[in-house]
């Protein structure tokens, strides 16, 4: 069975997996992110290739905006020097293998669409609710990259005109209302106190407190879910996808809010769509990077 290398480049670590066509991980290696990223990345990839000489391709998922055609990161400020590096041609020359580069959220979506919760569906949107709000669109098994490599920026759909100013500089972006960061704000605004600590609740405990019928927690939760439902409805109206996959850190508490979200989404849908929980956690980026070259 064909084997490839999937590489997920994060701000602090790089995770590399030797993955077969079926998505099985044969080796899982994590190294710290070192700057400058190139040629460090090349050295790490060559090390894995020496150990697994039968890999047939290298897929890379990275932070930032990526031009997938040229295999270059076009916008990334957290990893100095990485922006503008033509990683695809450099790595192809160094390894003699096919190399593909894409954004990490797109890779996570590809993993879910090909071998995860979206398997068997043809139009899959993956929504990642972590610290921020991200996403990726995979149609007929292919990542939708967009003209500038910027597709899938669900977090910057404007939800409230003249609303809270986003990190992107514009007011009212969805990320300000549906994300781990937004939960922190909602907890403050609704003054959700965790009775076991006597302090403001943490985002991961908010939903449990709401399930325990604590009024302030319910208010915060319901504001969050109402906004989340609007985002899902908007995406579905425009894209008519057949599956929405929800993942990311906030989705770890989904047992506490999943049914309520579906209840809020239902009256807002124009066409039917399956809404499913992500199959993968942190490994999604690495698996999806591998799927770029399977
Ligand atoms: Zn924004």
UniProtKB/TrEMBL annotation:
Segments passing through the bilayer: none
InterPro entries cross-referenced by the UniProt entry: ATPase_NBD, ROK, ROK_cs
A Pfam family of this chain: ROK
Xref: CDD domains: ASKHA_NBD_ROK_FnNanK-like (cd24068)
Family (UniProt): Belongs to the ROK (NagC/XylR) family.
The protein's name in its UniProt record: ROK family protein
């Amino acid at each position: 069975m064909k084997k490839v290398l999937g590489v997920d480049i994060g701000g602090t670590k790089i995770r590399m997996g030797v993955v077969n066509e079926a998505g099985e991980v044969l080796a899982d290696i994590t190294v710290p992110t070192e700057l400058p990223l190139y040629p460090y990345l090349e050295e790490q990839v060559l090390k894995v290739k020496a150990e697994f000489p039968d890999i047939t391709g290298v897929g890379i998922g990275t932070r930032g905006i990526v031009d997938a055609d040229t295999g270059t990161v076009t916008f990334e400020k957290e990893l100095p020097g990485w922006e503008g590096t033509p990683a695809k041609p450099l790595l192809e020359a160094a390894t003699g293998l096919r190399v593909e580069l894409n954004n990490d959220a797109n890779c996570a979506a590809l993993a879910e669409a090909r071998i995860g919760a979206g398997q068997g569906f043809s139009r899959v949107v993956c929504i990642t609710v972590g610290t921020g709000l991200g996403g990726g669109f995979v149609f007929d098994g292919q990542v939708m990259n967009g003209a500038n490599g910027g597709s899938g920026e669900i977090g910057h759909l404007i939800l409230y005109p003249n609303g809270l100013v986003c990190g992107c500089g514009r007011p009212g972006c969805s990320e300000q209302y549906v994300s781990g960061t937004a939960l922190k704000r909602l907890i403050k605004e609704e003054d959700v106190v965790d009775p076991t600590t006597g302090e403001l609740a943490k985002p991961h405990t908010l939903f449990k407190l709401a399930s325990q019928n604590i009024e302030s927690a319910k208010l915060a939760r319901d504001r969050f879910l109402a906004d989340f439902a609007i985002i899902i409805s908007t995406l579905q109206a425009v894209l008519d996808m057949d599956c929405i996959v929800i993942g990311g850190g906030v989705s770890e508490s989904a047992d506490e809010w999943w049914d309520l979200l579906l209840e809020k989404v239902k009256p807002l849908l124009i066409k039917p769509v399956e809404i499913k929980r992500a199959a993968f956690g942190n490994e999604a980026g690495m698996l999806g990077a591998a799927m770029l070259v399977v």
